[in-house]
Description:
The structure holds 2 protein chains of 2 kinds.
Chain A: H1 2-27, H2 44-51, H3 53-86, H4 93-105, H5 108-125, H6 134-159, H7 162-170, H8 175-204, H9 207-212, H10 220-229, H11 234-266
Chain B: H1 6-9, E1 21-30, E2 33-43, E3 48-52, H2 59-67, E4 74-79, E5 82-83, E6 94-97, H3 109-119, H4 124-137, H5 153-165, E7 171-175, H6 183-200, E8 203-208, H7 211-217, E9 220-225, E10 228-233, H8 235-240, H9 245-250, E11 255-265, E12 268-273, E13 277-281, E14 292-297, E15 303-305, E16 314-325, E17 329-336, E18 341-347, E19 361-366, E20 372-374
Parallel strand pairs in B: 3-8, 3-9, 6-7, 7-8
Antiparallel strand pairs in B: 1-2, 1-4, 4-5, 9-10, 11-12, 11-14, 12-13, 14-20, 15-19, 16-17, 16-19, 17-18
Helix pairs in contact in B: 3-4, 3-5, 4-5
Amino acid sequence: xxxxxxxxxxxxxxxxxxxxxxxxxxxxxxxxxxxxxxxxxxxxxxxxxxxxxxxxxxxxxxxxxxxxxxxxxxxxxxxxxxxxxxxxxxxxxxxxxxxxxxxxxxxxxxxxxxxxxxxxxxxxxxxxxxxxxxxxxxxxxxxxxxxxxxxxxxxxxxxxxxxxxxxxxxxxxxxxxxxxxxxxxxxxxxxxxxxxxxxxxxxxxxxxxxxxxxxxxxxxxxxxxxxxxxxxxxxxxxxxxxxxxxxxxxxxxxxxxxxxxxxxxxx
Amino acid sequence: xxxxxxxxxxxxxxxxxxxxxxxxxxxxxxxxxxxxxxxxxxxxxxxxxxxxxxxxxxxxxxxxxxxxxxxxxxxxxxxxxxxxxxxxxxxxxxxxxxxxxxxxxxxxxxxxxxxxxxxxxxxxxxxxxxxxxxxxxxxxxxxxxxxxxxxxxxxxxxxxxxxxxxxxxxxxxxxxxxxxxxxxxxxxxxxxxxxxxxxxxxxxxxxxxxxxxxxxxxxxxxxxxxxxxxxxxxxxxxxxxxxxxxxxxxxxxxxxxxxxxxxxxxxxxxxxxxxxxxxxxxxxxxxxxxxxxxxxxxxxxxxxxxxxxxxxxxxxxxxxxxxxxxxxxxxxxxxxxxxxxxxxxxxxxxxxxxxxxxxxxxxxxxxxxxxxxxxx
Lengths: 267, 376
């Protein structure tokens, strides 16, 4: 029984997970304008995509947002993780522990809505941010990406032999110097993995971005979503294929870096 | 000229000698747990002092307080006359060699060693020249460009030692420095350490749980238990005149028996004991009649003979239950008529001796001076 059961279970599992994606990739090379009818192989929709100003513009917005929010998330997340792993007692530690990981479990709709309310009331009272757009999306994405970075950085910092930092102190380096000379280089692989994860998460996000974006700052997922509502067009398939390629590469690099960091940690 | 080393001058023996490190009433609590409790300790320049104790006895915490990684809950620590309370670890005249070696994994061996010098503000060329010198001393100049994970355990240990010595600290703290090495390498390194300590004249404080290591290395040993230093003394003092049953039992092998002071003459004192009958011991002025005491005897102090030795004051009959031939000595477990089991050993001085073996009836005898009388 084992002879056929196991391979079949694996095959079914893979089909369940990846059949939609594979069909999407296949149909992105479809000549026909009708999404459900195969009209021969062609890269026509990829060419069409390159001429679509709206899609190219939103892709550029998405990349900018992802780049900046990944950078900010790495900074905020690392600082949070460092405080939580290296300072055992301070007022509000428990609160911070909870709050830093809250965005992981918070429904996106609520995160998006609460950020929108915050930005609106900030604009009314402080005058900043003036209107919603790139800045507000970056801030919003930083908040939830920072949570993911903090989790990754925390686990690496916990594994790290704390006597490394003590040894550097002992050899005459001040606390700030120790952080940049020792702690940061040792946890860098984990931070790169965190950055890549934050980048892909930001690139993927539709819900939060829809809440906090403004005119002229539509991200790629927002544009795709609005296009699809008017009917699936083949150039969206082509676009999705490209995105899948990007995400796949980023996830593979992140996974490889994380595994290497873990191996180093155990040595 | 070689600096005068503490092992020869023994400054702790002379009154009024100025200690290099003085710890007064140092206490460290972690919540409800007291790791170090009211410790007083004087250590002199050029000493190789061993803090000896089982894990969790507070020896590492005491070391970390000296390095500045823990601040005492109470009490003071002075190094070279300066109070250390407000001095962070990076400003202390101490360096530490960590149990895990704590080599920076992303730096080469050479950079690891030079790191402390660069933080001191030394020029790059000079720092690396001195690091190279240090690596030559520990015979690792060929591995200078390697990363720590490309080294063997013994090599890593030497890098850690070089890194902690390169700044020429006044005080070097070593936390279980030889813990991760195998037995042969460990013995070699022990003598290496003593040699380095004597040539550089640095004061060493070594934390260890290994009593042989402490006995070999130390000018003096502090035996710790439950956050308290039970006894401080030269290795010989600790072994021959322990001040408590704990110390006697912790260092080496010992036979302990319980008794009461029965009678005292100017040159002799008699104890009555449930296990050994009347035992003659040297007189001790501070004991009173009827006081509860314990006798401690090292295995090698017993004489094992087939006949009762003539004129022996303390002698007991027993039979050999177990015997182990080690080569240079033989170890015996002898069951006395009272049922007490005595551990005795005898050095094998003659080659063609007819050795005492299993199941033989023997006499164990003991000179009064071989017994150490303890009150706690």
